[in-house]
Amino acid sequence: MATVAELLRRARWTISVPLLSLVVLVLGWGRHPHGVALAVVGVFLVAAIIAAVHHAEVVAHRVGEPYGALILAVAVTVIEVGLIVTLMVSGGDETSTLARDTVFAAAMITVNGIAGLALLVGALKHHLAVFSSEGAGAALATVITLATLCLVLPTFTTSANGPEYASDQLAFAAIASLALYGLFVFTQTVRHRDLYLPVNDDTAHEADPPTDREALVSLGLMLVSLVVVVGLAKVTSGAIEDAVDSAGLPQAVVGVAIALLVLAPECIAAVRNALRDRVQISLNLAYGSAMASIGLTIPTLAVASIWLDGPLDLGLESTQIVLLAVSSIVGTLTVVPGRAKPLHGGLHLALLATFIYLSISP
């Protein structure tokens, strides 16, 4: 009798799931599903997340690390940025804080959630989570600089009313963000690539890498899966908003919930790498996603602001600034030794839990 794994291989679920999920997205787009329809959307959303992780790993196996982590992080962020801009163009003044809330939620989920979970899992299984302190430290420093430039300083500038940049300041922040992100990518993939490879990487027993054709097919299906993940997250946002309104919770909770869904593929990939004692790849995913989310969103919004009528509030509130500052300090103390105990992962997860709780009860 055929095993479950053999049946899955015969069904080619890695190909059928992204395509069927895309059909569900097309049928559900612009609708407000409830009941059974909502459950079906949820099932395909989870299936698309799993398919995205699978195809990302195939691509990573072909191109090698850290390129694989970089491709997944950038792909998710580009699609997420497109969703943010689309919602802001159609939302008017009510979406003035959408970019800020979404980017900050993504930063907290990646820096504390994905990194913290990977460190906790890796340390529990392998006694210590070992990684390159130079590579992780440079990545975290870039995240902190980008977050300060794009999310903290607008709160204190005086050229524009409210927590927003004037047009020339926004242009400067966009150019600086692109320059910093480009410099980091050059450092990660060209100049000092060795600092972003797993410290204890044993590839002797790995299967042969896929062919170019297989890798290209997986790249295409990964992109389809990620589009479906973000799209279905938007489709389910109506049900999430209804649940939030029924519970009397702030609307910021909707952004957090959607960000959690969108970043799920990276979270799963990070945990799987941590279980294989490849914590450096997990940190590449976490910090790379935070960097891409800030470094690509702000320049895109700077261009989009040409036709955006409403204000663009980027400056964080006082509670958010405190959480960002504490996360930066704890993150620095975590990456400096180049190895982490389960406690370090727990600290980051506690900060994420605090962020989520204060989003629910500000």
Describe the structure.
By secondary structure, the chain is mainly α. The longest helix has 36 residues, at 212-247. The chain starts with a helix and ends with a helix. The chain is globular, with a radius of gyration of 20 Å. A two-stranded antiparallel sheet has the order 1-2. The protein has a domain at 79-200 and 234-360: A middle domain of Talin 1 (Up-down Bundle), CATH 1.20.1420. 76% of the residues lie in helices and 1% in strands. This is Ionic transporter y4hA. Its main location: membrane. It is a multi-pass membrane protein. The chain crosses the membrane at residues 12-30, 36-55, 67-91, 103-124, 136-157, 169-187, 215-233, 253-271, 283-307, 319-336, 343-360.
Give me some keywords for this one.
single chain, 362 residues, mainly alpha, A middle domain of Talin 1, 2 strands, globular, disordered N terminus, NaCa_Exmemb, Alkaline_pH_Ca-Antiporter
What is the helix content?
over 70%
Q: Quickly give the CATH architecture of one domain.
A: Up-down Bundle
Overall geometry comes to globular
Corresponding CATH superfamily of one domain: NCX, central ion-binding region
Mean pLDDT: 83
Structural class: mainly alpha
Order of helix and strand elements from N to C terminus: HHHHHEHHHHHHHEH
Quote the distance from N terminus to C terminus.
Answer: 56 Å
CATH topology label of one domain: A middle domain of Talin 1
Compute the number of helices.
Answer: 13
Biggest sheet character: 2 strands, antiparallel
CATH class of one domain: Mainly Alpha
Question: How much of the sequence is in beta strands?
Answer: under 5%
Using only C-alpha atoms, the radius of gyration works out to 20 Å
